[in-house]
Amino acid sequence: MRRLLLSFIFQNDMALAPDLQSPEPYVISLPPSSAVSPATFEDTLYTNYDASFFIPSVLVARSGFDLATVAIIASLLLLSVLSFLFIFHLRIKSRRMKHLQDFNSLWTVRLLLVTFAFLWAVNETIRLPNVRRKYLDPFLTLNQQTNLCKFHVVLSLGFYEPGFLITLLFLVNVSIKKKNPCRMWALLCVSMVCFPMTLIQTILVYFAPLETELPKFVHGSSILTIDFQGNKTVLCTYPFFSCVVFWVFAIVYALAFLFSCWRVLDFVINKSIRVRINLLSAAVMVALPIQILCLGLSWLWLPEEDGYGWVVLVMFFSITTCMAVGEVILIIKPITDALVAGAECRRRFPGGFRLRRQVVQRERVNHQETGL
């Protein structure tokens, strides 16, 4: 609730001492003063915690949230690496086994799906405060850290996650078509659908409308904090405008995904495949509402507070679960089934398809001779 109350606090007609004035938005941990300027302290928060208690508790809490988030994201990275290995293994096998070539025709689209998930996980890892504080912030200025947060919002909500979801929808739709589309055409379709979302997020983050008239949390992607030791840290946030655009995208996508899953279930007879489609649709339809809810709740707390950490952790867990289920159902499991079928075919016909044709021709000749 403290972030939502900032707009009310900043409307007081007060003045700030000249030695504290700064053109940058920041968070100061000092006792409240009777002199506050709306222009200078638009993003300022005052706390009365004791330094010996406040700093260790915040660091421990943030380290715990970051450690849990890293563990969740690391599991997705490992699964993505395994998916890469499966895709390239099938690619090599399909060159020697002709019956796998049709199944492997969309290997570039499957590779794109795993790439989006992998890059999203890497992007979210770099966003974590402790990771940035140790490995990036010592080499970056405050302005560069702010630009890094803007870049993260554009990539996360405008490119990587929408790209993963659109590629997922494309693979679901293609699964019931008799003929697979061209690989380049498939990549072009995915890119054309992702481009508007990326463009809108870029405009809202870097060229926010009414930037000077609206509160910072509506369009800002970061805040600057100063601890009791004078260390400055830029913490990344999710702007209100970017979240609203993603909400619209998620609603439209959910409707399209449900319609596609309904078409697949109406077409498929195999019980195991129906179970996979139901599991995939459940993962997507649960993850998107949770993410929308968490993005809305994230505005009630500042990034260094425990409530914000819990909300972001739940959001990461839901998205990671959705991506993991998508990789298992659309990448790992189908490739495993195809390789098992290929091994069974080679066991029955050691000489390959030529020997199989010869066997079929001999059976036809025998049937004609015997009058069957």
Automatic annotation (TrEMBL):
Annotated transmembrane regions: 67-92, 104-122, 151-172, 184-208, 238-265, 277-302, 308-332
Keywords, in A-Z order: Membrane, Transmembrane, Transmembrane helix
Keyword Transmembrane helix listed: yes
Annotated protein name in UniProt: Uncharacterized protein LOC111366851
